[in-house]
Design a protein that fits this description.
435 residues, mainly alpha, 76% helix, globular
Length: 435
């Protein structure tokens, strides 16, 4: 098949089917039929399988074996394999450290800061760790197990605490020099990372400060309770992984350090036996299976949609609708956002949208650093709020592993940073006076 298939909007039908099944039926069950935990009634894996079935029924010119090959190409992407491995190691880490270690870290966090500032501290820590590590998924993996007992111990809602961590994680994903999204944006637009950082910082910092202020307003009005103390020895795995994250170690190295130290401490203190430790590792990995399966299914679906011309139709729409310099900047943002909704991977979205964004920026005299910044920013906005993105899935999985049920739709309204980042980006475009 050609590298640039003919644009066909009908190729996007599987995405529409998924959204109707997962979001539409969830809303009906939750708010119309008033079913308890209605959003949990629609298994996300089943919704994606139906979407893949729809994609398989499309394009009769491609035989079924050819469609399997297209799916395999989508799944075989390097970024997908990296995410799956992170999920597996993260599951082991959560399984080894368990609830007791997370609680000890949370109680220590609350003991060194006023209880009313607990959520604000979570957000700030997530910002620093994600900037250092360059991965939002890794940051969420490390900090959500702390956010869960912070919520339980302080009285703040669990969705608010998880949303604070996710917002901080997306801050670093957007700005970090070692983030895949930064590298992809700068490479496709041909600009220096330092130049992109300066342009990006002007957008991200106001959004982060506004988020922090909003969290503080909510926190100061909340009723918080006293927090018990924990075994400080169990803090060590989390201290080590946070230090590793802040100094910028590879996420795999950071997680392995946490796994090894957690295993040594829990065995040495008699928290678990060797047999129980192995069982906990297996349980942690099992808790990530749905997340991994969704990642695989999304990648397979995108492989077919791309080959059928679905993504090309999005590109053609952007080119046709948006005119002028400000329109070009909005077009770049919308383009990468739609790509992210379609692929559920902000790095992949940037790589796919990058060549078109480069053409738009040259045609409308948009600085390369600005187009790179817009690609990274808008991809993080959409990736930070979609309910089937890796960030959301790993956050929910971590909560479930620690024994707490939570829905993506409880978290999304509290994701202040992605929404404010979107507002900041739009204002940045609107007040751009450079000719």
């Amino acid at each position: 098949m050609s590298n640039k298939p003919t644009p066909k909007a009908i190729a996007l039908l599987p995405i529409a089917v998924f959204l109707v099944l997962y979001l539409g039926l969830g809303i009906v069950f939750e708010y119309v039929l008033k079913l308890e935990m209605g959003f949990y009634q629609i298994p996300i894996v089943v919704a994606f399988l139906v979407a893949i079935l729809v994609a398989c029924l499309q394009n009769s010119a491609v035989k079924f074996d050819g469609k399997l090959e297209l799916m395999a190409r989508g799944v075989g992407d390097k970024n997908i394999m990296t995410m799956i491995l992170i999920f597996l190691v993260a599951g082991i880490f959560v399984g080894v450290t368990g609830r007791s270690s997370a609680e000890a870290a949370a109680y220590f966090l609350l003991s060194v800061a006023p209880a009313k500032l607990a959520v604000a501290v979570l957000f700030v820590v997530a910002c620093f760790v994600s900037v250092a590590m360059g991965t939002s998924v890794g940051t969420i993996t490390l900090l959500v197990p702390i956010a869960v007992p912070v919520a339980a111990g302080s009285g703040f809602s669990l969705p608010l605490c998880v949303a604070a961590v996710m917002g901080g994680a997306m801050f670093g994903d957007n700005l970090s020099f070692i983030s895949d999204t930064t590298i992809a944006a700068c490479s496709t637009q041909g600009c220096e990372m330092k130049d992109k950082f300066r342009a990006n910082f002007k957008i991200a910092l106001p959004a982060a400060l506004a988020t922090l202020a909003l969290i503080l307003v909510i926190s100061l009005q909340a009723d918080v309770v006293g927090v018990p103390t924990g075994d400080h020895k169990l803090l060590i795995p989390y201290i080590l992984v946070l230090i590793g994250g802040i100094v910028g170690l590879n996420v795999f190295v950071v997680l392995l350090i946490g796994v090894v130290t957690g295993a040594i401490i829990t065995l040495a203190t008699g928290q678990v036996t060797a047999f129980e430790l192995l069982g906990n590792m297996g349980g942690g990995v099992s808790g990530m299976f749905e997340t991994i399966m969704v990642t695989i299914l999304v990648s397979a679906l995108c492989g077919m949609i791309r080959a059928y011309g679905g993504f090309e139709s999005l590109l053609a729409f952007i080119r046709r609708v948006f005119q002028g310099k400000r329109g070009g900047q909005l077009g770049i943002g919308l383009l990468v956002g739609l790509m992210d909704v379609a692929t559920a991977n902000n790095t992949v979205a940037i790589v796919m949208a990058g060549p078109i964004a480069k053409e738009v920026s040259e045609e409308y005299s948009i600085d390369a650093k600005k187009s790179a910044s817009l690609l990274d920013t808008f991809s993080c906005v959409f990736q930070g709020i979609i309910p089937y993105g890796a960030q959301m899935l790993v956050a929910i999985s971590a909560c479930t592993t620690l024994g707490y049920s939570i829905s993506a739709f409880e978290i999304i309204p509290l994701l202040f940073y992605p929404f404010l980042l979107c507002l900041s980006s739009l204002l940045f475009i609107a007040f751009d006076k450079k000719k």
